[in-house]
Design goal:
The chain has 396 residues and is mostly helical. The chain has 19 helices and no strands.
């Protein structure tokens, strides 16, 4: 069987390039003309304002501020008023204090410098992980992932999906050769809890006990480091807040956070399902994602395909995800294409094109067709797990 390289037919390549170009032009026009050619993102880096505002508040001795969503939003609107085209609606800090450890190296660079540096640094980490993910590094894979529309939206928002993807691809890529190091890398995913819940399930299913232990050590080390650097008061405030939000979510967070995302919960609510029933749909998606990960990691699939299943399952299971998180699905789709025997039929490229296009059908609250978003990771999981002629993965 001939090994597949990511060279799409013109019928898919040309519209894909136009869509990506539009997304990056949207980034360039967001500062001078927000909303003139597409969705109004207000300004560049509105999510990075949350990250930067949190680490600066903690360093200035005002840690209590970041745990009060309304006060913290007022602080952001006041601090970044010259950059904003309109006030932010509601931007709480919902991340564990361990994330602050990762943000600390960027705290002294100023807002603009830290925003650019974080995107470049995490993009470089993702590039390194992708180049190491196959025996023969694929520049086309690298360009496709970093230039896709979801990556452009990640850069517009100043989000951290490059870091999430780098930890997943890099961590699972190291498991066979260096399980301790792979586990340590995967343990860092606890900085975004919705993307780490499937890690222990995958490691247990694969029988990677050393990696499982290492991931726990890594996660605990991040907790200790954040407590030592910033004080244990942050954890004493964060844990009750997260438990309360889990049991009784804030209406503002649901309105301005979850409902503007791609999660199963958000999409089925937008389709008319009552909120309580939608929560059960989300739970069912989590269980299905966990089962798919167990099947994949107990199978004879290669590391690349197992990683792709994990990426798709993680997005499906996440109670909150945004258009930038589609970058994870683009990697999963690319790994799936690379795993199949050449020549690829047009339907394979069409399926990958659906993933590429998904961020442009966002947010589902404004674009009704975007409410099918949860079907995309589900489709990828089915395609990855179904019996099909696969290309044997070369030894790294």
């Amino acid at each position: 069987m001939q090994r597949v390289t990511l060279r799409a037919p013109a019928a898919v390549l040309i519209p894909s390039l136009f869509i990506a170009l539009y997304a990056w032009v949207l980034l360039l026009t967001t500062i001078p003309y927000p909303g003139k050619i597409g969705l109004d993102y207000n300004t560049l880096g509105t999510d990075w304002m949350v990250f930067y505002g949190a680490i600066r508040s903690v360093l200035h001795g005002n840690a209590a501020l970041i745990f009060d969503g309304d006060r913290f939003t007022d602080f952001l609107n006041t601090t970044f008023a010259p950059l904003l085209s309109s006030p932010l609606d509601f931007r709480p800090w919902a991340y564990p204090p361990s994330f602050l450890v990762m943000l600390l190296p960027f705290a002294g660079l100023g807002f603009l410098g830290s925003y650019v540096a974080f995107q470049l640094a995490t993009g470089a980490l993702l590039a390194r992980a992708l180049l190491a993910s196959t025996a023969a590094p694929s520049p086309i894979l690298l360009v496709a992932v970093l230039a896709c529309p979801a990556s452009a939206i990640n850069a517009i928002n100043g989000q951290a999906v490059f870091l999430v993807a780098a930890l997943i691809v890099g961590g699972f890529g190291l498991l066979e050769r260096r399980p301790w190091l792979g586990g340590l890398v995967l343990g860092l995913l606890t900085f975004k809890p919705q993307f780490c819940v499937l890690v222990p399930i995958a490691l247990i299913a694969a029988g990677q006990w050393r990696a499982l232990l290492a991931s726990g050590v890594s996660a605990i080390a991040m907790v200790i480091a954040s407590g030592w650097m910033f004080g244990w008061e942050l954890w004493l405030r964060w844990l009750p807040l997260i438990i309360e939000n889990f049991l009784n979510p804030s209406e503002k967070w649901i309105t301005y956070g979850r409902m503007w995302g791609h999660s199963v919960y958000a999409c089925v609510v937008l389709l008319g399902v009552p909120a309580r029933l939608a929560s059960w749909f989300q739970l069912l998606a989590m269980l299905g994602a966990a089962v798919s990960v167990v099947i994949a990691f107990r199978s004879r699939l290669g590391t690349r395909e197992k990683t792709a299943v994990f990426l798709a399952a993680t997005v499906l299971a996440a109670p909150h995800s945004g258009p930038y998180d589609v970058t994870l699905l683009v990697i999963a789709a690319a790994f799936w294409l690379m795993s199949r025997a050449a020549p690829l039929p047009l339907w394979c490229w069409t399926a990958a094109f659906m993933v590429w296009l998904l961020p442009m059908l966002s947010p589902p609250v404004l674009v009704p067709v975007g409410r099918i978003a949860p079907l995309v990771p589900l489709l990828l999981i089915v395609l990855l797990l179904r019996p099909a002629p696969l290309v044997p993965e070369p030894a790294p």
